[in-house]
Inverse folding.
C-alpha cells in the first residue's frame, strides 16, 4: 500500500511539475510581451493636461444663462415630443406627361379642324358669289347690267386699291346710315316735345 501511495505521489508530482513548467513558460512569454509594450505614460500625462485645459475653457465659456436657456428649450422640446403626432395626409395629384401631350394634340387638332371649317365656309361663299356673278353675266335680257358689270371688271383690273376703296365706301355708308337714324330719332323726340309744349 505504501508503494501505491508512492506511485500516486510520484505521478502527482510529475503532473504538477509539468504544469508548473508550462505556467513558468507562459509567465516568461507574458513578461517578454510586457517588455515590448511602449511606454505611454508621458503621452497620458499630456492628454490629461489637455483635457484639464479643455475643461477649464469649456466651463469658462459656458455660462449659467446659456445653460438655463438650453434647459428651457429642452423642456419645451420634451413637451412637444410628448404630444401625439398629427398625421396629415397631403394629396398631390400628378398628371402624367402623356395626358398633357394628348391634351395639347387635341387642342391643335381642334384648331386645325376649325381652320378647315372656316376655309370651307369662305370657299363656299366665294363659290356662291362667283356663281351669282356668272348668272348675272349670262342674263342677256338686261344689257345695262351687263355693261355695268363689265365696267366694274375693268375698274377692278385697272385699280389695285379697288377693294379697299369699296370697303371704305361701305363703312362711310354705314356711318351715314347711323347718323340718319340718329337724326330721325332726334326729330321724333323734338316733335314729341313740341306736342307736350302745345298741350300746356
Amino acid at each position: 500500500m505504501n508503494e501505491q501511495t508512492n506511485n500516486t505521489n510520484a505521478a502527482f508530482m510529475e503532473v504538477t511539475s509539468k504544469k508548473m513548467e508550462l505556467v513558468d513558460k507562459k509567465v516568461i512569454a507574458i513578461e517578454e510581451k510586457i517588455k515590448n509594450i511602449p511606454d505611454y505614460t508621458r503621452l497620458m500625462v499630456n492628454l490629461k493636461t489637455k483635457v484639464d485645459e479643455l475643461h477649464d475653457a469649456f466651463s469658462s465659456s459656458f455660462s449659467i444663462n446659456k445653460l438655463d436657456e438650453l434647459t428651457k428649450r429642452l423642456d419645451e422640446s420634451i413637451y412637444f415630443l410628448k404630444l401625439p403626432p398629427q398625421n396629415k395626409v397631403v394629396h398631390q395629384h400628378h398628371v402624367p406627361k402623356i395626358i398633357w401631350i394628348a391634351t395639347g394634340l387635341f387642342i391643335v387638332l381642334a384648331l386645325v379642324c376649325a381652320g378647315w371649317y372656316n376655309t370651307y365656309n369662305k370657299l363656299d361663299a366665294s363659290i356662291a358669289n362667283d356663281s351669282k356673278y356668272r348668272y348675272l353675266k349670262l342674263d342677256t335680257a338686261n344689257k345695262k347690267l351687263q355693261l355695268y358689270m363689265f365696267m366694274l371688271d375693268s375698274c377692278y383690273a385697272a385699280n389695285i386699291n379697288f377693294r379697299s376703296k369699296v370697303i371704305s365706301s361701305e363703312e362711310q355708308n354705314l356711318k351715314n346710315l347711323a347718323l340718319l337714324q340718329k337724326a330721325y330719332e332726334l326729330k321724333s323726340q323734338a316733335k314729341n316735345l313740341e306736342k307736350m309744349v302745345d298741350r300746356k
About this structure: Residues 108 and 172 are 39 Å apart (CA to CA).
